[in-house]
Specification:
The complex is a heterodimer of chains A (about 190) and B (about 280). In chain A, helix 2 packs antiparallel against helix 3. Chain A is mainly α and about 190 residues long. The N and C termini of chain A lie far apart (about 40 Å). The longest helix of chain A is centred in the middle third of the chain and has 31 residues. Chain A has one domain: Orthogonal Bundle (Rna Polymerase Sigma Factor, Chain: A), CATH 1.10.1740. Chain B is of the alpha+beta class and about 280 residues long. Chain B is built from nine helices and eight strands. Chain B is elongated. The termini of chain B are far apart. The chains are: A mainly alpha (about 190), B alpha+beta (about 280).
Chain lengths: ~190, ~280
Amino acid sequence: MHVHDDPDVEAADLAVRLRAGDQEALAEMYRRWSTLVHTIALRSLGTREDAEDVTQQVFVAAWRGRHTVQPDLGSPAAWLVGITKHRVADVRTERYRSHRNMQAVASEVATSPVTVDDSNWAERLLLVHELERMGDPRATVLRMAFVEDRTHEDIAQTLDLPLGTVKSHVRRGLIALRDRMKEVERVSSH
Amino acid sequence: MSHPTEDELVDLAVGDGTVSPSVSASVSAHVDGCDTCAATVAELRHTAALVAAAPPSVTWQAPTDAVWGRITDHLSTEELDADGLDADGLDADELDADEPTSDDLPPAAPARREPATPHTDDELERRRAGRHERDRGGRGRRLSVGWGAGLAAASLAIGLLAGRAIWQPDTPVQPVAQVALSTLDTKQDEGKAAVVRSADGLDLTVATSKPLDAGDGYLEVWLLNSDGKRMVSVGVLAPGDKASFPISQTLIDEGYVIVDISREKFDGSPAHSGDSLLRGKLPA
């Protein structure tokens, strides 16, 4: 039987195919993650026009930079989000420059930087996406442990799960999410 | 001491205080003197803090349908036509599909140039066979490979433009609507735009009677709303005088019926520059 319990196995396969130059893999990645990419860009930049522009740039960049995806890291979602974060930063820099130029022209006074919205939309929305995808009980266990700050014992009793299972979900889940965050950082800081 | 396991680091970073004090103390002592493990603990705590701050649910917002078309259009015009996509995953037939060559001219027209010089008799034979198959079977096979639906639609329209079939009365694909594009100041007729139905929806095709001057920037095609307030970018017009962009029926229905070609600078601004070269309003 070739049934994948872990959606990451299939997602990692997409990364392999993309690296090999399979155009259909890019189309599939767009179907799966363009909404994630677009929502991050929209929250970060505020306008639909910029958000769609960034979405377009991200997938064009994904194709051109397909040799930089790392299939051994599992799902390429974090890789796409890293590219998104980078592009969003580019748009912000550009906005800051034009704002500064405008102010310089207007007042010829060196100006304070415009407020930069650094609310980590890329990481936060990727996390929500990953939690949604992770499914239960792991996502619920993580939320109970970190959002509600409950003890593992308490979570085990509430969900009627063995304590060891709860601990395992907390550890595996958090490590997996940490790996995603590192990947975003790796890609976006290039 | 060897490094603690990742599990032990998780317990230290975000544990609920139930790990035995002796284990906790030895892990903690190691981390104090080990930069690598200290970094891991910091990452795990940062991630846990992000989970704690994550909104319970998010209203996901998908991009409009036009975006995928713009992506494939971008890749096809810049990479397939210019220097070809990387050899991996593409064979000669697929390249032909995206390049307006003699293959796309009507059968009666003389072939003007070969897509490439065949190197061997075998290859020549294979190309001939491929062409025959195409002449009989139409474009179905080619469109099933290569780029996704957006590009398939785009290459079909580019093929039609290359064959100039689109402006001929016996064209198999009738434009849904078409309009002359003229300069804003002197009202000179310098191009045409048409909405054509493709296998996957609608395409906006644009052709100019002579290449437009992009100056030191580039040319962008827009659909302006007849309310005079809204506009959408449908894509970048690559150097040359013809292009095709996938659009949606919704756009037309919502009143985005004025085709506009503008000259844009490489200034990072996605907004219309205000420098329109040609414009025309599609009939309802």
